[in-house]
Amino acid sequence: MKLLTLLFAALALASCDNTSKDSTNTPAAAPQESSLSGNVEVLHWWTSGSEGAALNVLKEDLESQGVTWSDMPVSGGGGDSAMTVLRTRITSGNAPTAAQVLGYDIKDWAKINGAVANLNTIANAENWDSVVPEALKNFSKHNGVWIAAPVNVHSSNWIWINKEALDATGGRAPTSWDELILVLDAMKANGLTALAHGGQAWQEAVIFDAVVMSLGKGFYKSSMIDLDTRALGGAKMLEVFRRMETLRSYVDDNFSGRDWNIASGMVIEGKAGMQIQGDWAKGEFVKAGKKPEEDFVCIRFPGTEDAVVFLADQFVMFDIKDSDKPAQLAMASAIMKPKFQSAFNVVKGSVPARLDVADTDFDSCGKKAIADFAKASKNNGLFGSLAHGHAAPAAIKNAMYDVITGHFNGVYSNEEAVKQLVIAVAAAK
Ligand code: GAL
User: I need a surface site. Which of 22, 40, 167, 302 has the fewest CB within 10 A?
Assistant: First the structure.
């Protein structure tokens, strides 16, 4: 404990000399001996079995350092409910120590003067800049100041297939749209729910992201990131909605409102053939004791094999009273340790937020995810997920959600959905 206190004292002193004033607060003050037995209050939406198991890795890590954990779970995959609660907490002057926040939502908090903490004390001492990829730092830092600690990198252009159900269709994982449809048709003919789906806007948007990407990286960039009206309103987007309509025909009647992990359970138990979902779903397979290649098969959505539609879970650290800042810094430091980054992500189904963590403890799907991310980072294959707030700000994301889920639920025809997408994005800009 003494060593840790001295470390923080040294770091705090070192940073005081050269930390420039900026819109975020100055780095945390040197901790007192007792303060490291502090507490962190953490707001998040990790309420599924595997998410809870992954979070326990962090809780136990901190408790081993004398830092206790006050849990503030707000259920609802994708985090919209959690962000509503966070806004209430901050506006009432009652900020948590840290909150799970995605992508552009982090940038929104950074712009609010004094809302977020300054983590440069620990980030500079531990050299985060040299190990965290630019794609994440774009969200973790504001005006050169670290304001969030990235826990992982998830990607969402995956399909999780029940191995037995796939074998019953001939055993060949699809590598094209046409092959995907053949496998879905065969699974349906075998009496299964071919496509397990949770009827929530963010989950429909995950499928939408993958279908858009499958029509080309350039098309994904121009429509989801550049918000180019010609891409949003063009022939390719009409094909996207046609394919969404086709996928809708493989979903069971009780999909509305279903949580993502319940849909994952349908595939795990063999009641459904496959799920198009981010690799948090893999966490549920692992938690259920399932093994890749034996019990399930992980593939990139056909046509997106050379792209990674990514999102990173980051803990934004908020400005809190000085006495709690050492515990907050301890949490940020714990998150970025390579050993934790491996242990946590093996359970969570994601990959480390640091590029220097070995894939030793990851299964074959995890190893593939790490290799895909490293390759995509090098050759422009990395694209922020629209569904998870890494392609555009919340207003645009929510505007697209409304059209995508409206179409999936039969409110809009394919042609009308294209028109509505252009209108909705223009209105949200
Ligand atoms: C994402 C989050 C993942 C997982 C998923 C389902 O937004 O980044 O960690 O929680 O939601 O809830």
Answer: 167
Q: In what order do the strands lie in the sheet with 98-102?
A: 68-73, 39-44, 98-102, 313-317, 148-150
- Per-residue pLDDT at 113: 85
**In the CATH scheme, what is the homologous superfamily, with its name and number, of domain 2-154+311-365?**
Periplasmic binding protein-like II (3.40.190.10)
| Ligand 1: residue whose CA is nearest its atom 6 | 77
CA of 78 to the centre of ligand 1 (A): 5
Nearest CA to ligand 1 atom 7: 78
Say if ligand 1 is within 6 A of residue 313 CB. Answer: yes
Which residues make beta-bridge pairs with 272?
A: 193
- Ligand 1 centroid to Cα of residue 261, in Å, is 10
Q: How confident is the model at residue 28 (pLDDT cuts 50, 70, 90)?
A: low
Give, using CA atoms, the residue closest to atom 8 of ligand 1: 313
Q: Which of the four CATH numbers 1.10.10.10, 3.40.190.10, 3.30.70.940, 3.40.50.2300 does domain 156-310+385-428 have?
A: 3.40.190.10
| pTM for the structure as a whole | 0.91
**In the chain, % of residues over pLDDT 90:** 89
- Residue 2 has φ and ψ, to the nearest 5°, of -60, -45
